[in-house]
Amino acid sequence: xxxxxxxxxxxxxxxxxxxxxxxxxxxxxxxxxxxxxxxxxxxxxxxxxxxxxxxxxxxxxxxxxxxxxxxxxxxxxxxxxxxxxxxxxxxxxxxxxxxxxxxxxxxxxxxxxxxxxxxxxxxxxxxxxxxxxxx
Length: 135
Prior knowledge:
By secondary structure, the protein is of the alpha+beta class. It has 1 helix and 10 strands; from the N terminus they run αββββββββββ.
């Protein structure tokens, strides 16, 4: 009887490992696929300052996550005296691991927590605040 119990337990344990591995991998692929594409910054909340809105505050940020783990950020700002400045383009590398988004800009790693990721919305947070993007 002990031998049968041990065999059944071992079989269940093996199935459990296989099931966990497959579902974890598919979840990672689904998240990576959801984030791939172009996102436009809509608003941000910075600790100690409160909310600020891209359109109202003369700020434009467009982020593109490519499926090969690279990306491009285009940023420009509006000045009342001079109008829109020329866009600054920044290339980066990224990786999404669980709810952590790792990005490398100019050799410096940045880590954000993905609070929400859907087809239309992306919400990121870090120690400085929360940032909202839309497609």
